[in-house]
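Lines hold sequence, tokenised fold; shown next:
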Amino acid sequence: MLVVCHTGDQSVSLSATHPVQFDGKSNGELPEASLSLWTKATCRERVKNRMEITAIKAFSDNYIWMIKNKNDSSVVIVDPGDAKPVVDILRKQKLTLSAILITHWHADHIGGVSKLCQLADIPVIGPDQHIPEVTQAVTEGDTVSVAGHNFRVIEVPGHTLDHVAYFCADSPQSPLLFSGDTLFVAGCGRIFEGSHSQMYESLQKLAVLPTDTHVYCAHEYTAANLAFATAVEPNNEAIRQLSDEVDHKCSQGIPTVPSTLQQELATNPFLRTDQAEVILSAKQRAVDANSPAAVFASLRQWKDNF
């Protein structure tokens, strides 16, 4: 087990036994059923004095997020693609499931919902397309109150047409965002249902959130994403520094999530489509990349085959 506790901008590794190897799959790909569960490593970040966020690893590279008030045994689960690792931690820590948040309908995000709903009569909150277990459908601008905090729903179509993100601004330490498969550390999700313009606009919605927002994405794709970011911006020192940090974390089995929006604005090529070196790289792939949206489309198509 690996536990990483974060306080503000600092993190301390408490223990590391069973390092995790990451496979660097392309953004947003669905895991095959045959993939084994990850080592049960977790990372925790204290939000406020009474709230913790724990990453439960599943499949080959998924993060299932658990939100818990420090002095309460009830928890909220985000994107439970598999019920087993969630049930294991609930039983081990004697926790009670109180709600489920869903970002989109892909199987690696909802596969465990039905079994978890057998544990208790709980609200299942998310988009209502393709998810029969949803009891509270949400759309742009809705507010969801769970775990003692308010989360604003942001519609972010692109990866899927129904994709939403959940933004919490009422933490005095730092805001936080559950971005699902829309915004990754140094990357973004593949476009399966939406269009390049939709995904570009969705990312722009997230880019204007407070820069100290902690970003909790749903996959460990950081190393592969940074390899692409380096190809796009080989002279970006922030990318080089982050790559060194990520290489070290991955070698130790330490999760690279969460990120911060400030870090993403400095290193994520999909949020840097107005930067000269990014534009130049995009135009080498598509000569008509004459706007930030067109630059994004060129980059996403490049990344699809990177």
User: Anything to note?
Assistant: The two ends are 32 Å apart (CA to CA).
